[in-house]
Write a structure and sequence with these properties.
Order of helices and strands: HHHHHHHHHH
Number of strands: 0
Radius of gyration: 21 Å
Distance between the termini: 36 Å
Number of helices: 10
Structural class: mainly alpha
Helix content: 40-55%
Strand content: under 5%
Length: about 170
């Protein structure tokens, strides 16, 4: 059997499935209730923001999070940005063009053209540049977005027998 026989029928795809990180929110208060004190600072209701964060933690895309919460995908991206997640759609150089536009050293048309962004991407990048993540939202979402927690420990325990110790190789 030749290598070409083994490789026959194999396909290369460019699509990957992001599975996300398993997390567990170990707090006793519901996320929507923890977000309620800062609801005025959120771009949507606390309940919708909680749905966005919880859906995102399962590995869903930002757009899917928005659909699940009943808000526009850009609103979902804003919520995640306020929760400390990196959701800016532009590269560091593109973000610099947005900063130059905000500082009035570059026209909007030039900044938009140089960044290569769509109008919606440019608007989201401008929001991310002008709004820092909110400590209260980050703290409230910490249990939902944190990769540490009882789920990670339980997963590690369940897979313990499949992992070898470093001393086993000597």
């Amino acid at each position: 059997m030749a290598l070409s026989d083994i490789a026959a029928g194999l396909e290369v795809t460019t699509e990957q499935h992001h599975r996300g990180v398993a997390t567990v929110d170990t707090t006793e208060t519901a996320l929507a209730d923890r977000l309620e004190p800062v609801a005025d600072d959120l771009p949507c209701s606390a309940a919708a923001a909680a749905t966005v964060i919880e859906t995102y933690a399962t590995g869903a895309s930002v757009g899917d999070c928005g659909v699940e919460a009943g808000v526009a995908p850009v609103t979902a991206a804003k919520v995640l940005h306020l929760a400390g997640e990196a959701t800016t759609p532009l590269s560091p150089q593109g973000r610099q063009f947005v900063r130059d536009w905000l500082a009035a050293t570059l026209s909007r048309a030039d900044a938009l053209a140089l960044s290569g962004a769509s109008d919606a991407e440019f608007a989201l990048a401008a929001y991310c540049e002008t709004h820092d993540p909110l400590a209260a939202v980050c703290e409230a979402a910490e249990g939902a977005l944190s990769p540490t927690g009882s789920a990670s420990v339980a997963k590690r325990d369940a897979l313990a027998e499949t992992m070898s110790e470093s001393g086993e190789f000597f």
